[in-house]
């Protein structure tokens, strides 16, 4: 039995008769379990039989044949890019670099809100309790997404390149663009840091080494230090980026980020596909977090050297990028991609590793490991309940193995963030999901009409 003496035995919500995958190495699996929640915190995690005799609960949910995990933490996504769903996957490159499709600078404020809410809704219904989102109009989309009830870290793309030329392989950098995008990000951080009961925040989203000049990257590093902000970026995501940085700076992208002061333990770097052995060692020494995008990368015919990166000292967390928001499927791909490179099923690549990437490692990348990422008394009540009353999840000899190997985001029944139910019976609780879907569809249709 684990209780919080100051709060037990009175709960606002009690979940019981379920199986808990805590993410806590001291007590990873609890069967016939109960989870007590008081306010926004976890105040009891243990077996039902060990509940205090005199406990009281305002609401009790009996959930047999359900499995609970910590809330999933998606450290790299672009919610607005739902607008290119089913198309971007077959282009062979990131949407910003591809002509003939809608781009960020084409998106109006109203379209940005509509599409961002769709991406956030999808993520939340699939079990993400936190998304780290970057794209355009973040001053509007932050609130639009946070209203759904999940944790939202967001930032507009920080760059000094003129994005209107990038799709045509033209990199023109302008100080005015850089100052505008950086100042907007800093203003966003000042406005939204810790709002919505601490559910919102900002990581400075330096778009990529090739879309930020060397001088501007140094400016971002200094701003991050001055304002105590973490940084997220794309790193070595394409051969084009590597070639451009070699031409421009006579370095690899990882060498450049080290040179400007951004390669450190407060950096979350997405993709990390095209890295030399020395780049991998450099990233490991810096203890960066790699935002691993296993399915998105594999769809493009690539995979990040995750076994080498982890062995070197880098941390692995997971993101969905611009394809979909199913972090359950992403866990499966992360495990498979690791095993393909190792060439075996070994102790270093198991379902528990995938769950850590999707939970506590992501929380650490966000600087929130003391609050979320595992189900431990005293932490915030961010959790996901999977419905195992389904053929593909039966039998549940190894519940974690079931989730990682055959589970889907659609198996999510209940999601709590800060102790509040934001998804119940698989449906968003605080917003009108059908209205969100309708408005996003209309926005995407308008964007594609202008792009054609």
Shape annotation: globular
Total strand count, please? 20
Which class of the largest domain in CATH terms? Alpha Beta
CATH homologous superfamily heading of the largest domain:
Metal-dependent hydrolases
Low-confidence stretches: none
What is the CA-CA span between the terminal residues? 61 Å
Helix content: 25-40%
Number of helices: 16
Strand residue content: 15-25%
Could you say which structural class the secondary elements and strand pairing correspond to?
A: alpha/beta
Number of domains: 2
Rounded to the nearest angstrom, the radius of gyration is: 21 Å
Instruction: Report mean pLDDT, rounded to a whole number.
Output: 94
Write the layout of secondary structure elements.
Blueprint: E1 10-11, E2 13-21, E3 29-38, E4 41-47, E5 56-57, E6 60-62, E7 66-70, E8 72-77, H1 109-125, E9 128-135, H2 138-146, E10 151-156, H3 163-166, H4 175-192, H5 195-198, E11 200-201, E12 204-206, H6 214-227, E13 231-235, H7 239-249, H8 253-260, E14 267-271, H9 277-286, E15 289-292, H10 294-299, H11 306-312, E16 315-318, H12 327-342, H13 351-358, H14 360-365, E17 383-387, H15 399-406, E18 412-417, E19 420-424, E20 427-428, H16 433-451
Parallel strand pairs: 1-5, 2-6, 2-7, 8-9, 9-10, 10-11, 12-13, 13-14, 14-15, 15-16
Antiparallel strand pairs: 2-3, 3-4, 7-17, 17-18, 18-19, 19-20
Helix pairs in contact: 1-2, 1-16, 4-6, 9-11, 12-13, 12-15, 13-15
